[in-house]
Amino acid sequence: MNVLIVEDYKELAKEIIDFLSKNGYLCKWVSNCKDALEEMGVNTYDAMLLDLGLPDGDGFQVLKSVRKQQCKTAVIVITARGELDDKINGLELGADDYLTKPFALTELAARLYAVIRRMNGFVTNEIEVHGFKIQLQDYKITFDETPLSLTKKEFDIFQYLVLNKNRVITRLQLTEHVWGDILELNSDSNFVDVHVRNLRKKLEKFTKIDWFETVRNVGYRINI
Questions:
Q1: Which of 28, 94, 99, 148 is placed for a possible disulfide with 67 were both Cys, Cβ 3.0 to 4.6 Å?
Q2: Closest CA to 177 of 45, 61, 30, 36
Q3: CATH topology for 126-222?
Q4: Nearest to residue 36, comparing CAs of 11, 13, 20?
Q5: CA 118/CA 48 separation, integer angstroms
């Protein structure tokens, strides 16, 4: 999952990045409103961690802009402002959660998982799809209690397609959400198709996967 961290305190941003990276997230850090809006205009993110007290403005302005664009990105406000009015304002502007500093990184990760699940219509950390059970936080997939041996990228692809069930996900979207900044990658490469092909082979050892659809010249869709 791809996360944009908008935080002007470098030490805190580094702590968040280190912790989330160990938990499988791809993180991009910016420190002001201008860069946050520019980044949101170029790339798509599953979630944004948004500080309010930024050097060139109020983070609420970023939140307003993101929601005005009807962007699906989940937004968690992370701020030292603990007043009730600020919390209400943030939620009314479209924030999915509000976390007051200082906070435990484990709590941040738990809230991040929760908002991403809710955003995609799931309420638990375990997702079941056509006999496969995906444990999001533990990076495990089983079929009838038998564990699958997937690479990290194969797991990320399967998880992302399942979280976006019944939607066509383009190769470009998969590249961006599983590998990171699309501008740093060769868009002509077929590495996405190679990973999907390997994933299919592993899934097919357990059951028919006609629900794992290839949309010609576009991308992939998992039908649930």
A1: 94
A2: 45
A3: Arc Repressor Mutant, subunit A (1.10.10)
A4: 13
A5: 15
Mean pLDDT over the full length of the chain = 88
119-140 residue pLDDT tens: 776 666 788 899 999 987 778 8
Give residue 186's pLDDT band: very low, low, confident or very high (50, 70, 90): low
At a CB cut-off of 8 Å and minimum separation 6, what does 224 contact?
129, 130, 162, 165, 166, 211
Domain boundaries, the chain: 2-119, 126-222
Residue-wise pLDDT for 36-86, tens only, equals 999 998 888 889 999 999 999 999 999 999 998 878 889 999 988 888 888
Query: Taking the model in full, what pTM does it have?
Result: 0.71
Yes or no: domain 2-119 corresponds to CATH 3.40.250.10: no
- Provide the b/e sequence for 142-170 (b: ≥16 CB within 10 Å): eeeeeebebeebbbbbbbbbbbbbeeebe
Q: How far apart are CA 18 and CA 113, in angstroms?
A: 17
DSSP 84-138: HHHHHHHHHTT-SEEEESS--HHHHHHHHHHHHHHHTT--SSEEEETTEEEETTT
Strand partners, 143: 132, 146
Spatial contact of 8 and 53, defined as CB atoms under 8 Å apart: yes
